[in-house]
Specification:
Layout lengths: L1 E2 L2 E2 L5 E3 L8 H9 L5 E2 L3 E2 H5 L3 H5 L10 E6 L3 H13 L4 E6 L4 H4 L11 H14 L5 E6 L9 H10 L4 E5 L14 H7 L8 E4 L5 H11 L3 E4 L9 H11 L8 H19 L2 H15 L7 H9 L3 H14 L12
């Protein structure tokens, strides 16, 4: 699959952009486990234009993690165009437009998935960004529609392609669904199999196992799959999926001691990146909360780990986890 001149190979597996998740330390882990393309946390166009330090930091990309896309969002065309120009100077491999975020503070103000209520403006914004960006492929991530009565993604995909995007990612839910219910890939398949479409179509939603990834590749014919929530705390899912796609064989989950060492590394990298112990611990807690899900008799250890106020205390809890469970115990496999 190619996005512009960027060749990602056959059936690539992508890391979805996720706020407060896809920072540099986590992207490094996912890259180590084989993610073919990753995205930054989404960044506000208004914050970019105002040069807000915390938002500008999200534009940082390390060479060893490439290829990486930077995703931007906003509700007005002119600021989005200006932000895209600034983002291109950060030299990402892709600039992605967020037309899919469903959270109220974004979609409710007309940005993200809020654009699904104004398709003409979405298309016009995309066209202006494509014209303004000189050397970087522009892609879009969106949803099936605003709600059950407005699933216009097949037509919308054609219109976005016609104004020059290089690839389209579709999350198989409406904005009204948020993240509830089961992702519906049937319309994603319709977009991919529309004879008018010639850009890569990337499917997103509920890819939580290697078997599910292969099933969706086979059933819907998408060019790539994108994994989001299932990677949190479990970055090795990329290795599992790619191995299964290549061999048809499943690989075992990591052993507990190996996973403990990984979490320690991620916490230390996060501390180095953020520079504040308390914020680093808070930042990584969502990864730790799901990392050992399914272990028997784990509740008290989990509470202590998540309530530990210092890195040293978190490390001590992690060491206790490694000592409590035999070396032969793997991280439990989560169901679909």
């Amino acid at each position: 699959m190619k996005i512009g001149s960027l060749d990602l190979g056959h059936q690539p597996v992508l890391l979805a952009p996720m706020e407060d998740v896809t920072d540099i330390p986590f992207r490094r882990l996912c890259k180590q486990y084989g993610a073919d393309l990753m995205y930054t946390e989404f960044v506000s166009a208004d914050a970019i234009i105002r040069d807000i330090a915390s938002s500008m930091k999200k534009l940082n990309i390390m060479d060893e993690e490439r290829p990486v896309g930077i995703q931007i969002y906003g509700r007005e065309i002119e600021p989005m165009v200006e932000a895209a120009k600034i983002v291109e100077e950060a030299n990402p491999d892709i600039i992605d437009i967020n037309f899919g975020c469903p959270v109220k503070k974004i979609a409710g103000k007309g940005a993200g998935a809020g654009m699904l209520r104004n398709i003409p403006k979405m298309v016009e914004m995309t066209a202006e960004i494509v014209k303004a960006v000189k050397h970087t492929p522009v892609t879009v991530k969106t949803r099936l529609g605003w709600d059950e009565d407005s699933k216009f993604v097949v037509d919308t995909a054609e219109r976005l392609q016609d104004v020059g995007i290089s690839a389209l990612t579709i999350h198989g839910r409406t904005r009204a669904q948020m993240y509830t219910g089961e992702a519906d890939w049937t319309l994603i398949g319709e977009v991919k199999n529309n004879p008018r479409m010639h850009i890569p179509i990337i499917g997103n939603g509920d890819i939580c196992t290697a078997r599910k990834a292969k099933e969706n590749f086979d059933r819907y014919g998408v060019d790539a799959v994108m994994i989001g929530r299932a990677s949190i705390g479990r970055p090795w899912i990329f290795q599992e999926v790619k191995h299964f796609l290549q061999t048809g064989e499943e690989i075992a989950s990591p052993l507990i001691p190996e996973h403990v060492n990984r979490i320690k590394r991620q916490l230390q990298d996060t501390l180095d990146w953020i520079g504040d112990e308390r914020r680093a611990i808070l930042h990584i807690r969502r990864h730790m909360a799901v990392s050992f899900k399914g272990l028997p008799d784990f509740r008290q250890l989990k509470i202590r780990m998540l309530q530990s106020p210092t890195v040293a205390e978190v490390f001590a809890c992690l060491d206790e986890i490694a000592a409590t469970y035999p070396d032969s115990v793997s991280v439990p496999v989560l169901g679909e």
